[in-house]
Amino acid sequence: MRSINTKNVLWHFTKRLSNLNFSLFILFLITLLSILGSIIEQDQNLSFYQTQYPDHLIGFTYFNWQLIVFLGLDHLYQTWWFVFLLIVFSLSLVTCTFSVQLPSLKNARRWKFTNDIKTSHFSDNFKLIETINSSVNIIYALNYHNFYGFHKKNCIYAYKGLIGRIAPIFVHLSIILTLFGSLLSLFLGCTVQEMIPVGESFHLKNIIRSGMYSNLSTNLVVHIDDFTIDYNFNDSSIRQFFSTLSLLDNSGKQIVHKIISVNHPLLFSGITFYQTDWQMNAVRFSIGHNSKFIVQKKLRKIEINGKSCWICNLPTNLKSQLFCIIFNLKDPILICDSTGIIINTVFPGNKIYIDNALIVIKSIIIETGLQIKVDPGIYLIYLGFFILMLSTAISYISYSQIWVNIQTSSFRIAGSTNRAILFFEEDIYKIHNKYTTYTCMSMNYKNDD
Fold this sequence. Notes:
By secondary structure, the chain is α+β, with helices and mostly antiparallel strands. The protein folds into four domains: 2-104, no CATH class; 112-161 and 398-448, TATA-Binding Protein (2-Layer Sandwich); 187-279 and 369-389, no CATH class; 281-365, no CATH class. It contains nine helices and 21 strands. The strands form four sheets. Strands 4, 6, 10, 11, 12, 18 and 19 form a seven-stranded antiparallel β-sheet that branches. Helix 7 (163-188) packs antiparallel against helix 8. The protein is elongated and about 120 Å long. Residues 21-308, 368-427 form the ResB-like domain. Belongs to the Ccs1/CcsB family. This is Cytochrome c biogenesis protein CcsB.
């Protein structure tokens, strides 16, 4: 008795879980929360939310940074309740697939012979041409128009477009794969952001996001060999920038060497290195004939006449100083005095004399911005979206059924389809015309014999 009650409870639970209205309600909640997560900035520090959402926000007395932090809206997609909604929605799709969609597909494959075809979407009577091959000719006509026909006594059943009934199953599968891939990325993925000068090495330490069960190798060493920028010829705007990376093990042995750029990352052992940004960090000077004094000055990014540039100052004595202005890496460096007058233009490595002192700009120190991601669910997400696009295209294939009842002097033909009714009616008349052609040909062959 207890086992029967347990089965009843499980059956009712599964039935409720696979209910279409319940699935749509969960999907609606997920959509609303996703919109909210797009409005509220995610993964920022506490001071950001205190500034943007103060305690006395005009018009929103109760919506402030305290409520955002309490509900976890600052990291909405990682909260337990959002993950719970995704899991419930996935289970709803799985149960719907096995309890509704697969039985529906199985039912669609059955041969449905019937003598009562009055309730079909389309029906008509056609004159039966008296010949012993009439039923065979109808089946030939159906097969000619890509229908699968089956004959039983005086009834014929045919269908085509069964693949269109498979589309909802693949839609469910694609959504499940996408959600599962998202959960894998959430729990096992991590993101590292680095800004590293050329010539330096680093470990993967500056983690800005990590899943609860993520695992990032600490033995990998990344060395920045070089950084270059490709400029457009006409306006000197940046076309592309490149970083040359070497991946080393703990002993310093090179494992991988590759040049990366925007949209052309480096993939190694499940870790992806993206080129994201760059900046000029400092200028290195040598002073004196023997280069005894090496001075490194920090660059600041400013705008002059709407153009971005980097500037640093170099004191020449107690009362005066020089300014170095850099617009890009291919044009010369502008040397200005304290009044802003350009007194010289040089490239790195050139010599200049200021107050009888030899100054050489040794190099411009460039930093390359890298984003390193471990995302084990990304390929499942790609696969899910691919299946979704494919199943969407397949869903436009009409599933059509035809019933034929052969009577004494005529045959009654009827059919139904789930879309494109006008094309289906046209198919019916084409089948009748093809039947007439086959039957007339059979009669001619019989008369010739």
